[in-house]
Write a structure and sequence with these properties.
2 copies of one chain form a homodimer.
Chain A lengths: L7 H6 E6 L3 E6 L6 E6 L12 H18 L7 E6 L9 E6 L21 H15 L6
Antiparallel strand pairs in A: 1-2, 2-3, 3-5, 4-5
Chain lengths: ~140, ~140
C-alpha cells in the first residue's frame, strides 16, 4: 500500500475524527446534518468496485459502525450512504443522518444550498464526542 | 426469510431485469442515465447497516457486478452508488453510470428534473441486453 494522501478538497471541507482499520473518518464541516465521510487509505481508488473483498468487508463494518452512532443523534430518522465522487475523484463514502426537518429533506444533500460551518468550539466538541463514542474502534 | 414483496413505488418506477443471489436487479425507467437499483430480498430492511456480514458480502459482489457492466456503457466515466430511501423506505441501492455530458452532472441524480421513460421497444432491448451480459450470474 503506497503512502496515502487525503485529497486537498476533502481536507479543506472536513475535520479529521480518527483512523479506522481501513478508512480515515472525517466530519464534514456542515452543521445542517450529522455528516461523516469514510476515506479508505488506499491510493488511486476512485470507485467502490475497486475494493477487494477483504477491503469491502472492512468498509461495510465501518459504515455500520458510523451508522449506528449517527442513528442515535437527535432527530435522525434515516441514514443516507453514498459514493459519488463526481467532483472529488478520490474514493470517499458519505454516511450521514437525515431528518424530515432538515434543510434538503427529502432530496439528496449533495449540492444543496450552502454548508453552515461549525464554530471552532463546536467542531472541537463534535470531534471529541465522536472519538469518545468510537473508543477502541479507532486505530489512530 | 419471510416472503419478499417489492415496494409499489419501485415496481412502478423500474423494470425487473432479474434476480441475483441476494437482490432483485431493476432498471430505472429513465433513459437519461444507465441506472440500476438493487433490492435485497429481505423483508423489513430499511438501512444498509441492517444487513449481516454475509448479506453485505453478497451485496458488495452484486454492486461490483453491476458496476463493471455500467462502466462499459457508452459515455460512462464515473459510477455513483447510493442508499438513500428518504421517499421509499424499503432498502434499495442505486448503482448508475454518470457522464460529464449527462443532465445532472456534476450534481446528484436524485430529485433532478423529470425522468425520461424508455419506449416499450427500448426497454425490452435494454432488459434483454442486461440479461445477456449477466448470463449465469442471474438466479432467476
Amino acid at each position: 500500500m503506497s503512502e496515502f494522501n487525503l485529497h486537498a478538497k476533502l481536507a479543506e471541507d472536513c475535520f479529521f475524527i480518527g483512523a479506522l482499520p481501513l478508512s480515515d473518518l472525517l466530519l464534514l464541516n456542515d452543521t445542517r446534518y450529522p455528516w461523516c465521510v469514510l476515506v479508505p487509505r488506499v491510493m488511486g481508488l476512485t470507485e467502490l468496485m475497486q475494493l477487494d473483498a477483504v477491503q469491502a468487508q472492512s468498509l461495510f463494518a465501518e459504515i455500520r459502525l458510523v451508522s449506528n452512532i449517527l442513528a442515535k443523534q437527535p432527530g435522525v430518522t434515516k441514514l443516507n450512504v453514498g459514493a459519488l465522487g463526481n467532483l472529488v475523484p478520490q474514493l470517499h463514502i458519505h454516511v450521514l443522518g437525515r431528518s424530515p426537518s432538515d434543510a434538503a429533506w427529502p432530496g439528496p444533500v449533495w449540492g444543496y444550498g450552502e454548508a453552515q460551518p461549525y464554530s471552532s468550539q463546536k467542531s472541537h466538541q463534535a470531534i471529541h464526542q465522536w472519538r469518545g463514542l468510537l473508543g477502541d474502534d479507532l486505530v489512530g
